[in-house]
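Hi P.,

Sorry for the delay on this. The queue was packed all week, but I finally got your sequence through. Input first:
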Amino acid sequence: MKVAIEGKAPDQAVIKTRTDAQGRFTFRTSKLNLHGQNIEALTDSEDKYARSYIRRRNLDPDHESYELRLQLEAVQRI
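Then the structure:
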């Protein structure tokens, strides 16, 4: 499955990664860069999709990692 992390500003690069067999993914960035970003996941068949917005209050300053669970839903085409 493809996963993309959008930057907050137009000049920030999009981080792309893929999930493992269990659907987990990892990437590295500073917490300051993570705040305010959208994380999107799309299945390879492009029939399921999930999106989450990272808020500053969800980032624990005492922990180096951040865990996020995304719920995939059917893509709605217009």
